[in-house]
Write a structure and sequence with these properties.
heterodimer, A: Helix Hairpins, 72% helix, B: mainly alpha
Chain lengths: 105, 185
């Protein structure tokens, strides 16, 4: 049986919370949709770190399964988001999320 | 005992380096004005997160993180940024706007909320972590969990990836109609 060396889980959770807040800050502040997508990745990774930290804390692998599922969902989200960015760019629309306030028309 | 404490110090040192690299590159992603530099900083963020996963004995998740995120997803990001071309925005120009103030307040509130909620609900158990055996987090362990207890999550993940791939092809395909027929946004 292996004990947890180094810092306790609370330190990892602090890093995870800071990452999530940093990503939320980027999503709220930045106007370029590419950087908004990158900030979303930071938020998802903060959540993943918390999941894996709790999985280690409880000695239960379900958190790691959840983290892998989150990674697959994040990859899907990037595919759709980048597809939208490329489609917007092809129609010569300014890449600014403040100006994207209509779906059609 | 001496070996254990030496290992403890080593893990602490690795943790401090990885955690500060992680936080610093996260802040860099948000604050660079050029999206290309932001994407490169996110690769550093993902790599240092993989080190933290290894310290939490999640070997398979760390390997998948490097392969899937730092490999595939970030290469796609860099290709799209290069395709669109460099365009910088300067979010810090012109003094603090109401949006910047609101973003700082909201993200600070989210951070405090997370810390308080986790501290209230799980504060007692965080100081003691369970001992795990050597197979915890190995590919065999993850694979057995995925294909027995969590088979539904595995299958739904595959469907989500298939739908995303189809959506990416549809969004990225050239429209057969000419540009003037397409309703402008």
């Amino acid at each position: 049986m292996i004990a947890l060396l180094g810092p306790e889980i609370a330190w990892y959770l602090g890093v995870a919370a800071f990452l999530f807040a940093t990503g939320a800050f980027g999503v709220l502040l930045r106007r370029n949709p590419l950087i908004v997508l990158l900030s979303l990745e930071i938020m998802l990774n903060g959540a993943n770190l918390a999941l894996i930290g709790f999985a280690r804390n409880l000695g239960d692998g379900k958190g790691q399964i959840f983290a892998l599922t989150v990674m697959a969902v994040a990859a899907s989200e990037v595919v759709v988001g980048l597809g939208l960015v490329v489609a917007l760019n092809r129609k010569r629309i300014t890449l600014d999320v403040d100006l994207l306030n209509t779906l059609r028309g | 005992m001496l070996v254990a404490s030496a290992g403890n110090v080593l893990v602490w040192m690795v943790w401090i380096v990885a955690a500060f690299a992680c936080l610093g590159s996260g802040v860099a992603v948000v604050s660079f004005s050029n999206p290309f530099y932001s994407a490169l900083a996110l690769i550093g963020n993902l790599g240092s997160l993989a080190v933290l996963y290894l310290l939490l004995s999640a070997e398979f998740v760390a390997a998948a993180q490097v392969l899937v995120y730092a490999g595939a997803v970030m290469v796609m990001f860099l290709f799209v940024i290069a395709y669109i071309g460099p365009r910088s925005e300067s979010p810090w120009a012109g003094g603090p706007s109401w949006q910047a103030v609101g973003a700082v307040l909201a993200s600070g509130a989210v951070f405090i909320e997370i810390v308080v909620a986790v501290g209230l609900k799980a504060g007692g158990q965080l100081s003691h972590s369970e001992h795990v055996d050597g197979t915890f987090g190995t590919p065999a362990y993850i694979g057995r969990l995925f294909l027995t207890d969590h088979l539904l999550a595995f299958e739904i993940t595959s469907i989500v990836l298939l739908v995303a791939a189809i959506g990416g092809v549809i969004l990225g395909a050239h429209s057969r109609r000419s540009v003037d027929e397409v309703p402008s946004l």
